C-alpha cells in the first residue's frame, strides 16, 4: 500500500465529487496532485516534501497540511456526508446519466437513491433506463481474478466459435494491475487485419453475436464496427458487469493498446509529450505532424493518413508500446505505473 494512502484516498474522494458535479478542471487539478503524491514513494511527514512538486499548488499544500495535522480533511467530511453530493455521485455512476441530468434529478425532482430513480424511471432517457436496470450490480467493483476468468472464457469461446487467431486482451485498470476494476475493457485484433482493408471490421459484430447467443452478453448499450458497450455476466451467481470491447486492426493495435490501458490522465500526459516531439497520438495511431523534423523514424507502413476526424499527417507504424514511448521521447512506463 502506498505510504500516503490516507492523503491519496481523501483527495480522491474530493476529486470524484468534482467529476460527478461536472467540474472537470477541478477534477484534473486533484488528479494531478494525487499522481504527484502517489509517485513520491516516501511517507509525507511535512508539506515541505511536496510544496515544490509540479502540479501541487498552495491550496493543495494547505489541504495536505490539514490531513497531516488532524488526520482528516473537513472538506472531505462535508462531501461524504452531504446527501445531495452523494446522490449526484450515485446517479452519475449510472450509464446514461451525466452531471446535468443528475443535478436536475436531485434538485428539481428531489430524488436521492437508486430506489427513487426506479420509482421515477419515466424521467430518464432510454440509455439511462438500461443503465438503471443494472445499476446495483455495476456499482460493485469487479475483482481482478473474475476479470481473468472473463478473459479465459472469452478466449475459449471466440477461438472455438469465431476464429482461433483472434487476439484478445483486457486493458483499462485491470492491465494496470488494479485489484478491482470499474468495468471490463477488452481489446481484440487479428494478426492478418489491416486498417487498409477495413473488411475485418465485421469481426466485432460476429463476436458480439456469438457472445449474445451463448448468453454471456446480456444487453447492449451501443454497438459500432469498432466499439461495443454493454453488459455481460459469467454466470447467474455473479453480478452483471459493464463490458467495453474495441476492435482494432493489427497495424494500429499498439496505439490502441496504449490508449485503452490508460489511465485517462496518463494518456493526456503522453499526448502532450508526443505533441512536443511533433507527433499527434490517439487511439487510432501515432501521426507525424507536418512541418516538424521527425528524426526518429520507425518504419512507416501502409495507411496514408489518419481516419476522418483525426489530425492530419502520416501515420507511423509501431510494433510495440515501447516504440511509441521511444518516438515521443519518454522512458518506457510499465502498465502498473500508468495509474496516473
Ligand atoms: N480513457 C481515456 N480518456 C477517457 C476515458 C477513458 O483515455 N476520458 C482510456 C484510458 C482508460 C481506458 O480508456 C478505459 O477507460 P475506463 O474503463 O473508463 O477507465 P479505467 O482506467 O479502466 O478505470 P475503471 O476501473 O474505472 O474502469
Ligand atoms: Mg475500465
TrEMBL record:
Residues of the active site: 63 (nucleophile)
Main location group: nucleus
Keywords linked to the UniProt accession: DNA damage, DNA repair, DNA replication, DNA synthesis, DNA-directed DNA polymerase, Nucleotidyltransferase, Nucleus, Transferase
Record field: catalytic activity: DNA(n) + a 2'-deoxyribonucleoside 5'-triphosphate = DNA(n+1) + diphosphate
Limits of the DNA-directed DNA polymerase X domain: 2-339
Nucleotidyltransferase listed as a keyword: yes
Chain's role: DNA polymerase that functions in several pathways of DNA repair. Involved in base excision repair (BER) responsible for repair of lesions that give rise to abasic (AP) sites in DNA. Also contributes to DNA double-strand break repair by non-homologous end joining and homologous recombination. Has both template-dependent and template-independent (terminal transferase) DNA polymerase activities. Has also a 5'-deoxyribose-5-phosphate lyase (dRP lyase) activity.
Family: Belongs to the DNA polymerase type-X family.
The protein, known as: DNA polymerase
Amino acid at each position: 500500500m502506498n505510504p500516503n494512502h490516507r492523503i491519496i484516498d481523501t483527495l480522491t474522494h474530493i476529486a470524484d465529487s468534482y467529476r460527478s458535479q461536472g467540474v472537470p478542471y477541478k477534477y484534473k487539478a486533484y488528479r494531478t496532485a494525487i499522481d504527484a503524491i502517489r509517485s513520491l514513494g516516501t511517507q509525507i511527514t511535512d508539506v515541505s516534501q511536496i510544496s515544490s512538486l509540479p502540479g501541487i499548488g498552495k491550496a493543495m499544500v494547505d489541504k495536505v497540511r490539514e490531513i497531516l495535522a488532524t488526520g482528516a480533511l473537513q472538506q472531505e467530511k462535508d462531501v461524504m456526508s452531504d446527501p445531495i453530493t452523494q446522490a449526484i455521485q450515485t446517479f452519475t455512476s449510472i450509464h446514461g446519466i451525466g452531471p446535468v441530468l443528475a443535478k436536475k434529478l436531485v434538485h428539481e425532482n428531489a430524488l436521492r437513491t437508486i430506489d427513487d430513480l426506479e420509482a421515477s424511471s419515466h424521467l430518464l432517457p432510454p440509455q439511462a433506463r438500461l443503465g438503471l436496470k443494472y445499476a446495483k450490480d455495476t456499482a460493485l467493483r469487479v475483482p481482478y481474478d473474475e476479470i481473468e476468468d472473463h478473459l479465459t472464457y472469452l478466449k475459449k469461446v471466440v477461438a472455438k466459435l469465431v476464429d482461433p487467431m483472434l487476439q484478445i486482451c483486457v486493458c483499462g485498470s485491470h492491465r494496470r494491475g488494479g485489484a478491482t476494476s470499474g468495468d471490463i475493457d477488452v481489446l481484440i485484433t487479428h494478426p492478418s487485419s489491416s486498417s487498409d482493408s477495413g473488411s475485418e471490421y465485421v469481426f466485432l459484430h460476429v463476436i458480439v453475436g456469438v457472445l449474445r447467443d451463448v448468453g454471456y452478453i446480456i444487453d447492449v448499450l451501443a454497438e459500432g464496427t469498432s466499439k461495443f458497450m454493454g453488459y455481460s455476466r459469467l454466470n447467474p451467481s455473479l453480478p452483471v458487469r459493464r463490458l467495453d470491447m474495441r476492435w482494432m486492426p493489427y497495424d494500429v493495435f499498439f496505439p490502441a493498446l496504449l490508449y485503452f490501458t490508460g489511465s485517462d490522465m496518463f494518456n493526456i500526459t503522453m499526448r502532450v509529450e508526443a505533441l512536443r516531439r511533433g507527433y499527434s497520438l490517439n487511439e487510432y495511431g501515432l501521426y507525424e505532424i507536418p512541418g516538424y523534423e521527425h528524426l526518429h523514424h520507425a518504419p512507416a507502413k501502409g495507411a496514408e493518413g489518419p481516419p476522418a476526424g483525426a489530425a492530419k499527417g502520416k501515420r507511423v507504424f509501431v510494433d510495440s508500446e515501447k516504440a511509441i514511448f521511444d518516438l515521443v521521447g519518454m522512458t518506457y512506463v510499465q502498465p502498473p505505473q500508468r495509474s496516473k
